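G.,

No rush on this.
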Amino acid sequence: MPRHAITFAPRLLPTPEAAAYLGVSETMLRGLSIPRKLLGGKRLYDRLMLDEFASSLPSEGDEKGNSCDAVFGD
């Protein structure tokens, strides 16, 4: 690898790579409310928006209002 080469994750991702980044199927990704950026004729997901979406998801144990889990477990 040349000395000036930098390895980094691209900022804009096509659907297959964006789905893999989040660990979901392409079908599931398309059903989520994550907007895409337009670059020429391409529709690409912004990695920062994918991170924001993932960070906004509830963590296990953070769910509120489901008293059945306390009694029966999940």
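When you get to it, here's the other one too:
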Amino acid sequence: MTATDTLKQAPANADVDESKPNETQGLMARLGRWLDRDRWPVPAETQTLFSARITDVAANRLAKQWSVRYGAADGKERRALLAALAQASAGLEPRGDQGLRLFRRLYAQADSLHLLVELRADMLRWRNQVAGLTVLERELEGLLSSWFDVGMLELRPITWDSPASLLEKLIQYEAVHEIRSWEELRHRVADHRRCYAFFHPRMNDVPLIFVEVAFATQMADNVQVLLDPKVPASDLNKARWAIFYSISNTQPGLRGISFGNFLLKRVVDELLRELPKLKSFATLSPMPGFVDWLAKQDGKAMQELLHDKADKQQALDDASAGLKWVERLQAAASGTASESAQRTGLRLAGLYLKSMKNGQPVDVVARFHLGNGARIERVNWAADRSAKGIAQSCGIMANYLYDLEQLDDNLAQLAAGKPKTGLNLRWL
């Protein structure tokens, strides 16, 4: 029996145990005093949310009131409410499944999963400041992982004909390349583009993750061209490449619950069904950690990374050698770059993408795509000259290639600590 099945069998108006009417009346009276006097519930009252049977009417009403109050609260009050939960949670002995019971109770009283997702986002935000919150956060993560199983998610296309409220959410949640106008949004969801998102039936109005797709005759190397609404529309009949140029998770409360890899695989299937002439699938991806990584490299580290002898000599014993290269590459990307600067910048970017820590790629985007079985196919100079692109990666972007026949082999190579690269990077 799943957690959802349990909830279906335990509606909020289930019969209460009539053998303890005074206890129930007393709880309701305390609840009334809490709300009327605007005070936090004492731990004994809050513990009822954990310990009472899932069918207990009084405890469920308390959960409903708590949910309404939490939903309307500002950050300060939410933190206080979470602190009260954590304090009550710490007193549970034996704990058993009482923490899970709290969240199932809150879920049963809610119209959707919004509250639980917001609750975990706040727990992640404050878990290092509120004692005992980490235990609750981990329990909630486990439940959300089951409630957001990929088998429960629905893949839907988003077009210019989608409801305005949904299109506004694309603007709100776009995390890679800002959408600055309705004209830009219309370009992203035009007939010659595709946008797909995963939805959950209990959060039907919110895309959990979405991907934006462009089509081309060859692998794209410049995101400005893809984003510019004034660039003529591509001919889908001539398209052989599908380019995933933006993937955005929308819910911080679902961090660590991965369904992005399933999204891309489902989208590939949809695209091949609709456009069977497509031959290749690749991304044009940012490298959000490149500048931070390079700036931390001292002269000794740069000796290993640089290829030119003069550059190696200049970096010798220079504690800020990496930072100086950041400044040099950012200036070059913003203006006219020499061939030497471009070559060195691309080499450093490729070595960064291959860097591993604790068995995982250092770059968060590389971690995602390589973890899906893609390979690092190419790095592109001045591919994103936006302020964000220059600040994060000196304007350099990467192509990850999804070769459907090689995904498993690439994953095996990644597990061995050697991320797969394409022929374009054989010089690294």
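The longest strand covers residues 241-249. The two ends are 52 Å apart (CA to CA).

Enjoy the weekend,
O.
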